[in-house]
Amino acid sequence: MKNITASRKRACITLAVSAALVVTAAGCGSSSSTAKSSTGSASLWMLQDPTNSVSQSAVDAYNTTGPGKVSMNVIATDGYKDKLRTAMGSSAMPGIFFNWGGGSLSDYVKAGKLVTLDSDLISHFLPSALQAGTVDGKLVGVPSRGTQPVFLFYNKKVFTDAGVTPPKTWTDLVSLVPVFKAKGITPFAVAGTATDSWTELMWIEYLVDRLAGPDLFSKIAAGDWNLWSDPAILKTAQMVKQLVDSGAFGSNFASVSYGAGGTSTLLDKGKAAMVLMGSWEYATQQAADATFAKSGLGYVPFPSVEGGKGNPADVVGNPTNYLSVTTSAPSQTAEAFLKTTYSDSYVAGLVAKGEVPVTTNAKAALAKAPDPTYAMFQYNLVANAPSFTQSWDQALGLTLGTPLLTVIQKLFNGQDTPEQFVSGVLAIKH
After folding, report:
1. 129 and 358 Cβ atoms separated by less than 8 Å
2. In the record, which residues are listed under signal peptide (predicted)?
3. How many whole angstroms separate alpha carbon 65 and alpha carbon 83?
4. Which DSSP state fits 303?
5. Left, alpha or beta for 270 (phi > 0: left; psi -120 to 50: alpha)?
6. How far is Cα 385 from Cα 389, in angstroms, rounded to an integer?
7. Hey, how many other C-beta atoms are within 10 angstroms of the C-beta on 152?
């Protein structure tokens, strides 16, 4: 899934550290260890983003009092992953680096490039936001930016005029389709162009979670690709087909793009009643029409699915972005710097930028958010989520995630039946 804010086991080196953060080479399988310098200079790679001013302030403050020094390098979005991959295989490996968690970390963990972060860090963050920073049960990524859950946005006036309320269950959702169609309004805006199929992925992710729970995809992402044959996958594809055939997404969504001029404009102008989107939709609407964003834009969690095994409080999306530590970083320097990611000043800085941090001390700071009500909605959604499944395309990485989006698009466009969808996804890895 697109990230608008921008984005296992070999070495057994026990690093000398103190207090809150103990870092060991990820995947350490024996008790042998070698000492390593605990202080010194560490390079920090960050992806280009407006919140980098918050990170720079943290670096500046750290460098006046912390052990060692941290130098921040801002890398352009285009080519970031390739540049990082090249650096990680050379002597120019950064000490600390920005990432999306999930699949983007797995290869580095397998190669023994990352260190495992001490469990004491866990108490400072919302549990569901740490899942994508954990590989093989080892914490290798600490949250560094805001959260981006996916949920339903709706046009309040369109709902009021139709005399209906936002859906709480799948039955509610399906029943709204003919209501809005009768008024000439597209029930759900969705972007179906070739580059925007990640918006269709959101429907698949939530339905699989609601039907089977988060463990099914978790096992798939861990390597059991044959689980795409699980009955919940086929059921999901059938439910999507039913929505498409009923006109829930309109008749020309294959030519609709995401954002201003596309799905966001359809919602803003009342030509669509709802859109399933990440929390960044608010910022998109605010940039286009601040009045609508503040007064006319509604939002609710994705509905429950009757008979499903999944918890309706589960969330999908981008839990957050992460900072990971490599084996090249001086341990005490890394230890002290990572503490800045949950400091009051860092959290306040993110909130001022419109972010919703996933730290346990963020709730009080959200009173000063640009829209406190919206910020608290997001925070509570994530804080109360038993599971926060990372966007599948991020969790699987480019090699598997990209062809998955292609197969999903064929399902939405009616090129593949639900059965062909299942076989098409299974064929990606065979």
Report:
1. yes
2. 1-25
3. 31
4. P
5. left
6. 10
7. 20
Read off the pLDDT of residues 349-379 as tens digits, 9 standing for 90 and up.
999 999 999 999 999 999 999 999 999 999 9
120 vs 272: CA distance, rounded Å? 46
- What is the rounded CA–CA span in Å between residue 116 and residue 14? 10
Report the C-alpha gap between 408 and 122 in whole angstroms. 35
Give the C-alpha separation, 11 to 363, whole Å.
38
Q: In which residue are the tokens 């299942």 written?
A: 422
The Cα–Cα gap between 376 and 216 comes to 30
Spatial distance between the Cα atoms of 105 and 134, rounded to a whole number of angstroms: 9
Residues of the chain with pLDDT under 70: 1-37
CA nearest to 329, candidates 36, 32, 28: 36
Q: What residues form DSSP beta bridges with 277? A: 151
How high is the pLDDT of residue 24? 47
With 0-12 / 13-18 / 19 or more C-beta atoms within 10 angstroms meaning exposed / middle / buried, residue 7 is buried
315 has which bridge partners?
388
How far does the chain reach from its first CA to its final CA, in angstroms? Answer: 24
Q: For the whole model, what pTM was predicted?
A: 0.86
Can you list the alpha helix ranges (DSSP code H) found in 165-251? Answer: 170-182, 198-212, 215-221, 231-246
C-alpha distance from residue 215 to each of 72, 171, 281 (Å): 37, 24, 28
